[in-house]
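Example 9 (inverse folding). The structure is encoded as follows.
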């Protein structure tokens, strides 16, 4: 019975099923999941922003490129 209910919600909500199962109190009650989990503010504060990730990856890419250039120069000398 629960499987049919879940399949019906899945068909209606499509890609939003996961989000609704996490935060929607009605769906959580229907499936017996308990109250919605509250994310701790410290967890959100520790998460690195998209821009910071971009800067970190750009710096890593630049360092990798420089390392490869040095390796190429050493290979030419030998």
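The amino acid assigned to each position is listed next.
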């Amino acid at each position: 019975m629960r499987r049919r209910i879940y399949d019906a919600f899945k068909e209606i909500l499509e890609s939003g099923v996961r989000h609704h199962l996490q935060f929607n109190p009605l769906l959580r009650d229907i499936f017996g999941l308990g109250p919605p989990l509250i994310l701790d503010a410290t967890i959100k504060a520790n998460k690195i922003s998209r821009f910071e990730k971009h800067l970190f990856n750009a710096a890593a890419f630049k360092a990798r490129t420089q390392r490869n250039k040095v390796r190429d120069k050493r290979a030419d000398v030998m």
